[in-house]
Amino acid sequence: MTMPVTLQFYPHSDSVHLRYCLREQNFIGLKTFLKIGLRRKDFRDFFLTLLDNTCLNGGIFHFWGHSWEVKKYQYWTILKDLVAEISSRKVVLFLTNCQIIEFLNYENTHCS
After folding, report:
1. φ, ψ dihedrals at 64, nearest 5°
2. What is the pLDDT of residues 51-73, one digit of tens each?
């Protein structure tokens, strides 16, 4: 099983997002990107739009990033602001990566 990832915390170009979706055969992610990602104003807007979409439709919003990129490109302020935004959402459940995998394994064995 692979870890579902919504977004890397880095402002990739559209072509990179599309390439990842196709390479991973993530057709749900591709559909979401075509619906949401191409209309974004900037990275912050894209992040929050994906978060809103997950809160409205359910699912897992999992983002990750390299600390060296956050430091090199001075993304600490935006990261702090976006984490505060996530924390303010009442429908958000915070899980570790292990808890996500356990949840997905449970769904796959008990809900099919």
Report:
1. -145, 165
2. 998 899 888 898 989 999 999 99
